[in-house]
Amino acid sequence: MLFSELAEYYDKLESISSRLAMIDVLTEALKLVGKGEMQAAIYITQGTLAPAFEGIEFGMAEKLAEEAIAIATGYTKEQVDSSFKKTGDLGLTAQDMKGKSRLKSISSNRYTVLEVYNMMRKIATTSGAGSKDLKIKMLANMIAAANPVEAKYIVRYPLGQLRLGVGDSTIMEALSVMATGSREFKKELERAYNICSDLGFVGEELSTGGKKAVEKMHVAIFKPIRPALAERLPTAEEIIERLGGTASVEQKYDGFRLQIHKKGIKVRLYSRRLEDTTEMFPDIVKATLDEVKVEDIIFEGEALAFNEATGELFPFQETIQRKRKHGVEEKVEQLPLHLFAFDIMYLNGKDMLHEPYEKRRDEIEHILKGGELILPTTRIVTKSPKELELFFEKSVENGLEGIMAKDMKAPYIAGARKFSWIKMKRSYKGELSDSLDLVILGYFLGRGSRAEFKFGGLLCGTYNRKRDMFETITRLGTGFSEAQMSELREKLDKIKTKSKPARVDSVVEPDFWVIPKYIVQVNADEITKSPTHTCGRERQKDGTEIGYALRFPRLVGNETIRSDKGPEETTTTQEVIGMFKEQKKVSLKES
Ligand code: ATP
To answer: Are residues 350 and 497 in the same domain?
Structure first.
């Protein structure tokens, strides 16, 4: 497939305002993708070069792209820059300048999707002396050979600003229709994606081997599994009841999640977002080799820094200092880590995902016997809400976040938030017991004292998993420092869109819409019902439509933007509805 054809479809996708129409256009496009180039087509559509765990990123600076546009169109860098100041989007600048190029097109070369992908990969992986000029030259060559629409995407792609508004779920739905004519096969594609975290690979298997090849896909070492996630419940009684009378109740540690893959003497570590973080934690690699005495294994746990003199665990703020790329050795000395293992997914050739938790837990305890740095999570097994409550109180007293209760009979449910894991966190008066992770959908301009920052707050939303849409839940204007306001404004300016993105459902109109990309952590006094927001919106008997909203929302958390979550990993609409119901129950009990 020629890249120019794919670019035409992207152009259509951008102008579409309904999700269903989006699936149709994407399906049509995917039907034209040949065998052997599906993987590339999917990565490009995702705006990436490879799955997160491969760690290949563009990191291209705008200045560099500006130079390439100038070379390819015959304009000066200053002219490109002044156009960029007007459009705010270098893709549009490239399209415009290509349309009125001062250079005759000398190249009759029409690049295929695969060729563009391969060249982009080369640009990303070129390093060392002279690499900057080489990158500019390669990009300029591609722009020179492109038509204006093609040029728009050739420039946006390496800048990480494709602006298609397509998510993984949308791609899987389109793949399903492409291959089978119906949406039914999406479930199977999801299963495959959840165990390998590589949608390009799943798409290529489908394209070359058909449905059967996807059905055959299984867990493999060095392909991280998308993490199982927890639901919430506020009381011990409800937890025990929901888990069928017996629960494995574990301490909930506040560190960072690591998925550990070991094959012989090779070990790789993956983060919550499935990025390869092996280089950051040589101590965990060593501890795995020393203490995990099995050939092949995939297991998972929470890493926390501890005080070597007292054995005490450090809070998250200390632990997080270990997440760094430089000065690793020094930090290993200062802040040694423990890993509290809580699950096992693969053992010596055997897929453990389908084994009941009690068996997986037995296995992990057995394997980790006598370990020093890698330990199983502290836990009790109980039928008694009272006992669960006491364990929770004690955990909180010991400075932990709360507890995780687990269904003894459940399999490991990759990539989904289910009631086989239930979290209960310590809460403070006047605050929701858990913060929400919301996606930024738009922003409002500042007035009064905030006019200087041109920042008057954010429009934030949840992800509705069933509809594959983003729904608004709150306007967020509190909790920001001045530095955070400037940072947000700068980041958001780069992803502004002219109109509301197709997968956003909103009745509120912010001053600017943005591509759903960044996540903020928000707490509030309570969840209320509201006609203003579309989160969980339902038509009432009297014809009005009511959704959910937040009362007194404020920005919280350690980072302005959560770096470990993507837009589809926000708190879902379904979770908000659950939290609303639970909150109602609690307040009924309290009154
Ligand atoms: P989530 O990871 O569920 O999207 P989150 O990042 O906001 O949400 P929390 O809601 O605080 O995190 O809790 C879930 C996280 O708790 C897990 O992802 C895991 O990293 C951590 N965790 C700590 N202790 C345990 C445990 N015993 N079992 C499972 N997970 C645990």
So the answer is: no
Locate tokens 């908000």: which residue? Answer: 576
- Assign 418 to helix, strand or coil: strand
Residue 102 belongs to some domain of the structure: yes
Choice from 232, 243, 251, 253 to test ligand 1 binding pocket (greatest atom count within 8 A of CB): 253
In a domain, 60, yes or no: yes
- Shared domain for 386 and 494, answered yes or no, is no
Pocket test for ligand 1, best of 257, 424, 425 (most atoms within 8 A of CB): 257
Residue 518's domain spans which residues? Answer: 436-590
The span from the CA of 14 to the CA of 28, in Å, is 15
Same domain, 390 and 511: no
Take residue 223 and report the two structure tokens written for it. Answer: 């392909």
Which among 250, 258, 302 is the best mutation to test ligand 1's pocket, defined by most ligand atoms within 8 Å of the CB? 302
Residue 182 lies in a domain: no
Number of domains present in the structure of the chain? 3
Going by their DSSP bridges, the two strands 538-539 and 519-523 should be labelled as: unpaired
Residues 338 and 444 in one domain: no
Q: Are residues 273 and 358 in the same domain?
A: yes
CATH of the domain at 112: 1.10.3260.10
Residue 492 belongs to domain with CATH number: 2.40.50.140
Per-residue model confidence as pLDDT tens for the chain (591 residues): 999 999 999 999 998 889 999 999 999 999 999 989 999 999 999 999 999 999 998 878 899 999 999 999 999 999 999 999 998 899 999 999 999 988 876 666 789 999 999 999 999 999 888 899 999 999 999 999 999 999 999 999 999 888 898 999 999 999 999 999 999 999 999 999 999 999 999 999 999 999 999 999 999 999 999 999 999 888 899 999 999 999 999 999 999 999 999 999 999 999 999 999 999 999 999 999 999 999 999 999 999 999 988 888 998 888 989 988 888 999 999 999 999 999 999 999 999 999 999 999 999 999 999 999 999 999 999 999 999 999 999 999 888 989 999 999 999 999 999 999 999 988 766 778 789 999 999 999 877 666 666 778 999 999 999 999 999 999 998 888 888 888 998 899 888 888 899 999 999 999 999 999 999 999 999 999 999 999 999 998 888 899 999 999 999 987 889 988 889 999 999 999 988 987 766 655 554
Rounded CA separation 516/500 (Å): 10
Around ligand 1, the residues with Cβ closer than 6 Å are 229-230, 250, 252-253, 257, 272, 302, 342, 377, 404, 423
Residue 447 near residue 149 (C-beta atoms within 8 A)? no
Distance CA 261, CA 267 (A): 6
List the residue whose alpha carbon is closest to atom 25 of ligand 1: 252
The answer to whether residues 324 and 392 belong to one domain is yes
Question: CA geometry: angle at 526 spanning 522 and 528, to 5°?
Answer: 110
Say if residue 401 is in the same domain as residue 467. Answer: no
**pTM assigned to the model:** 0.90
Distance 258 CA to ligand 1 centre (A): 11
Atom 26, ligand 1: residue with shortest CA distance: 252
Instruction: Identify the helix (H) or strand (E) that includes residue 9.
Output: helix 3-15
Q: Does some domain include residue 414? A: yes
SS3 state at 382 = strand
| 421 lies in the same domain as 443 | no
Provide the H-helix boundaries in 89-235. Answer: 90-99, 113-125, 131-145, 148-159, 168-180, 186-196, 199-215
- Nearest atom, ligand 1, residue 564 CA: 6
Residues annotated as catalytic are: 252
Given 140, 159, 178, which residue is the final one in a domain? Answer: 159
Q: Which of 136, 159, 182 is the last residue of a domain?
A: 159
